[in-house]
Write a structure and sequence with these properties.
It is a single chain. This protein is α/β, with parallel strands linked by helices. The chain folds into 2 domains: 272 residues, Type I PLP-dependent aspartate aminotransferase-like (Major domain) (Aspartate Aminotransferase, domain 2, 3-Layer(aba) Sandwich); 134 residues, Aspartate Aminotransferase, domain 1 (Alpha-Beta Complex). Helix content is 38%, strand content 12%. It has a 7-stranded mixed sheet, with helices on both faces. It has a 5-stranded mixed sheet with strand order 8-9-12-11-10. Bound molecules: pyridoxal-5'-phosphate (PLP). The site of pyridoxal-5'-phosphate has 18 residues, from α4 and α5.
């Protein structure tokens, strides 16, 4: 059952990487809840440490349950290998750290996940890892900011909460022409909507906490290596030589795993991988419903008198509507909506009067979730920085769930009526 390439995505997402014949017929991988693995002979452990034999040593390094999840996501993202980690931020951090040396630079856009933004503009500075933030829609601006010290370009498939959709193909072309890898955080789109590696990206990152799991029961992250980047003879990456020698096309994934993941201890609990795999069985079905619900909710909000503006790539007046249509093959526009009321007070009244919709800091859950970013996730940011990140006091962010769309709309409407 390991080669499912002939199936369509919505079937592969269920069947990929399952080997019941190796699991006493079980249709889900066992949870290998064991800190380390016994080896019958001294030679076996020595060969495993030397990388001559594929086997498990210690849970911080690898775990058999995690390996199934890694194989599954690598395949669904059309990559050649993956490493699962304890959170999406572990995946972002380990990937960037493996790519950078002190003094190096990288390029990214203006709309980033909040913790990613803090990591890039705050913590990384301490180690002289230098981010250049540009308008990723402007290819000239990207090109002009590339120097000898640039090591990669980093984007998110759907920016949050700006809801912008960068043109992955165009940016990948520029990256390639300059010998740079392109890293894409595909959390908000999921592989159901797009496989960035097929569009020329080199590395894909996910917070598995979100759409991949869908149940909001476990945090997790994963890095997928497309295995297409040419590290050898690239003068930007002289330090990759030992990793190329060891793992060839998967040099970066080896560097991420060997240097950072195992030494920083960003281990994923096998139970979390197991939960994520259960959630993933319904990914295709959930994404269809998430996105059709979001389309209905966005259009309803747009026609509501008390709603000042709606930011959703599915609306024909959204600046990236056409890019989203092409990039996502007309499958949908994601399920995140930003919309504006008169002021913060109205936003609070709306949130305080909802009955079904959950008010919490997460997204991609099957439940509809709402948040007022200005006063919560971004509370400690300077007002000017917030505005630069498109966080305004009137902004409400909605992660549309898979409930009956009428119930989502009714809940919002009855709360808007109170304003
Ligand atoms: C949530 C999120 C992350 C971080 O993932 P965690 O699992 O919360 O660490 C990174 N990128 C994006 C786009 C996210 O939505």
């Amino acid at each position: 059952m390991s080669n499912e390439k002939n199936l369509h995505f919505d079937s592969r997402v269920i069947h990929e990487a399952l080997t019941p014949d190796l699991w006493n017929g079980a249709t889900l991988p066992p949870i290998f809840q064991s800190a380390s693995s016994q080896h019958e002979t001294a030679q076996s452990l020595s060969d495993t440490f030397a990388g001559k034999q594929k086997s498990h040593i210690y849970m911080r390094l690898t775990n058999p349950t995690n390996s199934v999840f890694e194989e599954k996501i690598a395949s669904l993202e059309n990559g050649k290998g993956a490493v699962v980690m304890s959170s999406g931020m572990a995946a972002v951090n380990n990937t960037c750290m493996a790519l950078l040396r002190s003094g190096d630079e990288f390029i990214t856009g203006t709309s980033l996940f909040m913790s990613t933004y803090l990591l890039f503009t705050g913590i990384f500075k301490k180690y002289n890892l230098n981010v250049k933030i540009v308008d990723t829609k402007n290819i000239k601006e990207i090109e002009n900011s590339i120097t000898d010290k640039t090591r990669f370009i980093y984007i998110e498939t759907i920016g949050n909460p700006k809801m912008d959709i960068p043109d992955i193909q165009k940016i990948a072309k520029t990256a390639k022409a300059n010998g740079l890898p392109l890293v894409v955080d595909n959390t908000l789109a999921s592989p159901y909507l797009v496989q960035p590696i097929d569009l020329g990206a080199d590395v894909v990152i996910h917070s598995t906490t979100k759409y991949l799991s869908g149940h909001g029961a476990a945090t997790g992250g994963i890095v997928v290596d497309g295995g297409n980047f040419k590290w050898e003879n690239n003068e930007r990456f002289p330090d990759f030589a030992p990793f190329i020698e060891r793992k060839g096309e998967l040099a970066l994934l080896d560097k991420i795993w060997r240097e950072h993941h195992i030494n920083f201890g960003t281990t994923q609990a096998p139970f979390h991988s197991y939960l994520a795999m259960i959630g993933m069985d319904t990914l295709a079905l959930r994404m269809e419903r998430h996105m059709s619900n979001a389309f209905k909710v966005a259009n309803h909000l747009k026609s509501h008198k008390k709603v000042k503006w709606v930011n959703f790539p599915g609306l024909s007046d959204h600046p990236d509507h056409q890019t989203a249509k092409e990039e996502f093959n007309n499958k949908g526009f994601g399920a995140m909506i930003g919309f504006g009321l008169e002021n913060q007070e109205q936003c609070f009244t709306l949130i305080d009067n909802l009955n079904m919709i959950y008010h919490l800091a997460n997204l991609g859950d099957c439940k509809t979730l709402i948040i007022h970013p200005w006063s919560s996730q971004y509370i400690s940011f300077d007002p000017e920085v917030k505005t630069g990140l498109f966080i305004t006091p009137d902004l409400i962010r909605l992660s549309v769930g898979i409930e009956n769309p009428k119930d989502i709309i009714n809940d919002i409407d009855q709360a808007l009526d109170i304003i």
